[in-house]
Amino acid sequence: MTIHALIADDEALSRRVLRQLLARHADVVVTAECSNGAETIAAIATPGLDVAFLDVCMPLASGLDVACGGVRPLVVFVTAFDDFAARAFDVDAVDYLLKPIDDDRFDAAVDRVRERVRLRRLDAARAEAVTGSSARTTPPYLRQLVARVGQREIIVPLDDVELLRADDVYVDVHAKGRRHVVRTSLDALERVLDPAQFLRVHRSFIVPIARMRETRRRNGVEVVLDTGMVVPVSRRRRARLDALLGRPYAR
After folding, report:
1. Is residue 113 part of a domain?
2. Which helix (H) or strand (E) holds 164?
3. Which end of the chain has less neighbouring CB within 10 Å, N or C?
4. Strand 205-208 relative to strand 198-202: parallel, antiparallel, unpaired?
C-alpha cells in the first residue's frame, strides 16, 4: 500500500525536516509541497491524496482553515504552538505534533495514518461495490484571507474584500478602506477563490461580484465598484464579464 502525502509549511527548513522523516517510511510518497494556505487548498483537492502534514500558522490561510474545507485527506498538524490542539481534534486530525519533532512520536503518527488510510480504502471499495461508482468531491475554496504583519496574522473575511490587486509576486487586498498584503500570486489566489463570488477582470485585478455596480465604456471597458473604485477590464476577460451579465460578447 502506497500512501500519498502533502507537506505544507511556510518555512523551507521545516518542509525539509518533514521530507527527511517521511523518507524513512518506504510506503509514503510526498506528492506535493506548499508554502502557504492558498497553495495548500488548491493542492489538497488532488485526487488520490491520502494525508496532509499541515503547519497551523501559514500565510493566506491557516492549517485549520485548510482542514475545515470539507472533503479532504487525513490531516496531521505539525506546529510550534500547543494552544490549537483542541481545535485540531475538532476537525478529526489524526495527530498533533509539536516542533521540534521527536522521531519516535512522528513514527507513531505515521502508523496511525497508515491504519486510517487502510480503513478508508476498505470503506471506499465497499461503497464502490454497492454503488458502482466512486464518490466525487467538490474543490474547496478559501473562506478568508490571512495577511502576516510581523509576528501577527491579520484575518480578512472574504465578505470584507473590496478589491484584489496584483503587486509583483504578492497581492494587495483592499478591505474596509485598508490595504493588506498576502504572500501569494494573483494566479494562485484565483484558483482557490469561489468563481461564484469573485471575477478576474484583468491580469492585475480580481473583483468581488457582489460589489460590482456598473460597467462603462471609455478607453475600453471598466467596472465600477460600490466603493467608487474603477477597474479596467481586459479584452481577454470581457467574455466572462458579458456572460455574467447575461449579454452577448461584443468585440
Report:
1. yes
2. strand 161-167
3. C
4. antiparallel
Strand, coil or helix: 149: strand
The single residue listed with the C-alpha cell 489538497 is 44
Q: Cell 492549517 identifies what position?
A: 63
Nearest to 193 by CA among 176, 210, 217: 210
Same domain, 10 and 110: yes
Peptide bond into 100 cis (omega under 30): yes
Range of the domain at 174: 144-245
Residue 8 lies in a domain: yes
- Give the C-alpha separation, 177 to 53, whole Å: 36
User: pLDDT at residue 127 above 80?
Assistant: no
* Radius of gyration of the chain, Cα coordinates, nearest whole angstrom: 21
For the segment 220-230, the average pLDDT, to the nearest whole number, is 93
Q: What is the pLDDT of residues 31-46, one digit of tens each?
A: 989 887 777 777 777 7
| Cα 192 to Cα 41: distance, rounded to the nearest angstrom | 7
Please report the DSSP string for 75-130 in residue order.
EEEEES-STTHHHHHHTT-SEEEESSPPHHHHHHHHHHHHHHHHHHHHHHHHHHHH
Write the pLDDT tens digit of every residue in 167-188.
887 899 999 989 998 877 888 7
Q: Which amino acid is at 4?
A: H
